[in-house]
Write a structure and sequence with these properties.
The complex is a heterodimer. By secondary structure, chain A is of the alpha/beta class. Chain A has one domain: Response regulator (Rossmann fold, 3-Layer(aba) Sandwich). Helices cover 41% and strands 22% of the residues of chain A. Chain B is an alpha+beta fold. Chain B has one domain: Winged helix-like DNA-binding domain superfamily/Winged helix DNA-binding domain (Arc Repressor Mutant, subunit A, Orthogonal Bundle), CATH 1.10.10.10. Chain B has 6 helices and 7 strands. A 4-stranded mixed beta sheet of chain B has the order 3-2-1-7, with helices on one face. In chain B, a hairpin with a 5-residue loop joins β5 and β6. Chain B is elongated, with a radius of gyration of 20 Å. Classes of the chains: A alpha/beta, B alpha+beta. At the A-B interface, α1 and β4 of A face α1 of B.
Chain lengths: 107, 178
């Protein structure tokens, strides 16, 4: 079974995502922040990490901390950044490209 | 999340990312050796240069940095890909095959002197080749380990034989790329 980790500060939103993933059959764990998720990431058996940043201001920091947490993994998981605000130009997706992560707008 | 539409889009994206990951895990890296200075009518003929080798995975070229002795060993294992080779046999091939004895003779450039291989040295080069392939696999994000790619087995007469467990390809170019 594929393992998915959700890092989302909004517990309600995280639970909705978790229900959706588990309905498809993924083994899903949620964490409210990166600090708590680090241990699970470094274990190295994840297939996907979904990161929901708090705001557009915290996006670069979130990308940096995910990037550094994954750098020593032999087979790093796929990363999806789920942004809960409306797109304002291409800058955020370009930032995602630079870090080789997928950026998706929820709205 | 308001309504089911955003959740549906997110799930589609998640399924796509995980499916892409599964497909990539099934793809095997390919080991490519590049020969330069090919004569028009023949491939892998004496006088060519072994220019470099790299892993192709999934569509990237990941260089495997090797000095000339390592390149020659890698080339030998690629050319005899279907045959497990003992160190003694590798030594004989590298010392007596016209391809390795006349390495670089088609080139006007000053060539490096062809190294002389001993069995002890070959064992060291074999281990270095394995390490470099392992680094390239890691760089490319492949889940394969060194032991799954460079296989060493013992025959019934207690001789260790080695072979590459990867699809291989020799790429030929007429002249050296500048």
């Amino acid at each position: 079974m594929e393992r998915v980790l959700i890092i989302d500060p909004d517990a309600m939103h995280a639970a909705e995502l978790q229900d959706g993933m588990e309905a498809i059959g993924y083994d899903t764990t949620t964490f409210p922040d990166m600090r708590n998720a680090l241990g699970a990431i470094k274990e190295g058996c994840l297939d996907l990490i979904v990161v929901v940043p708090r705001s557009s201001l915290s996006l670069p920091d979130a990308l940096t901390s995910v990037g550094s947490a994954l750098k020593d993994l032999v087979r790093p998981p796929e990363i999806l950044f789920l942004l809960r605000w409306k797109p304002r130009g291409p800058a955020e997706r370009l930032l995602g490209d630079r870090w080789s992560v997928q950026v998706l707008y929820e709205r | 999340m308001s309504g089911n539409e955003p959740l549906g889009r997110i799930m589609e994206e998640v399924e796509y990312l995980l499916a892409r990951r599964r497909v990539r895990a099934q793809e095997r890296p390919r080991l490519v050796v590049v020969h330069e200075q090919r004569q028009p009518s023949a491939e892998c003929s004496p006088g060519e240069i072994i220019d470099r080798c790299y892993l192709q995975y999934p569509d990237r070229e990941i260089p495997i940095p090797l000095a000339l002795p390592g390149l020659m060993l890698c080339d030998c294992m690629v050319r005899y890909n279907n045959t497990p080779l003992s160190v003694a046999r590798m030594e004989r091939i590298l010392a007596h095959s016209a391809f390795y004895r006349r390495l670089g003779a088609n080139s006007f450039e000053r060539n490096e002197r062809t190294p002389h291989f001993t069995r002890v040295a070959l064992r060291v080069y074999l281990s270095r080749l394995g390490s470099q392939i392992a680094k390239a696999l890691k760089k490319g994000g492949s889940a394969l380990r060194k032991e799954q790619v460079l296989i060493s087995e013992t025959t019934e007469s207690n001789v260790a034989v080695h072979y590459l467990n990867l699809p291989v390809h020799i790429l030929h170019r007429m002249t050296r790329a500048v």
